[in-house]
């Protein structure tokens, strides 16, 4: 799983690590930060790739399973 650095200053998240949960249309994506906060943003907001963080990966897989249990399908996922 690839971890990115968030470049934009939205919701005070500039410089924080995040992972992409799903990619959408119009260059959008659902990202999850290390503290569990999720948001939909532009893929342009994602900067350079950061070193892998196993904590984020574990929680992301858990979030993906929670979505699946609710019947929500994530297309083009990087889980």
For this entry, give a set of tags.
20% helix, 1 helix, single chain, 79 residues, alpha+beta, 5 strands
Protein model, in words:
This protein is α+β, with helices and mostly antiparallel strands. It has one helix at 54-69; strands spanning 3-6, 17-23, 28-33, 38-42, 46-50. A hairpin with a 4-residue loop joins strand 3 (28-33) and strand 4. The longest helix has 16 residues, at 54-69.
Helix content, binned percent:
10-25%
Quaternary structure state of the chains depicted: single chain
Query: In percent, how much strand structure appears in the residues?
Result: 25-35%
Gross morphology: globular
- What is the number of strand segments? 5
The strands making up the biggest β-sheet line up spatially as: 4-3-2-1-5
Largest sheet: 5 strands, antiparallel
Short description:
The chain has 79 residues and is α+β, with helices and mostly antiparallel strands. The protein is 20% helix and 34% strand.
Annotate the secondary structure layout.
Layout: E1 3-6, E2 17-23, E3 28-33, E4 38-42, E5 46-50, H1 54-69
Antiparallel strand pairs: 1-2, 1-5, 2-3, 3-4
């Amino acid at each position: 799983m690839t971890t990115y650095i968030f470049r934009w200053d939205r919701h005070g998240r500039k410089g924080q690590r995040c992972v992409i949960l799903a990619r959408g249309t119009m260059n959008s994506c659902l990202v999850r930060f290390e503290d569990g906060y999720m948001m939909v943003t532009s893929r342009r907001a994602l900067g350079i790739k950061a070193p892998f963080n196993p904590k984020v990966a574990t929680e992301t897989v858990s979030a993906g399973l929670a979505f699946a249990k609710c019947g929500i399908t994530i297309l083009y996922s990087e889980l």
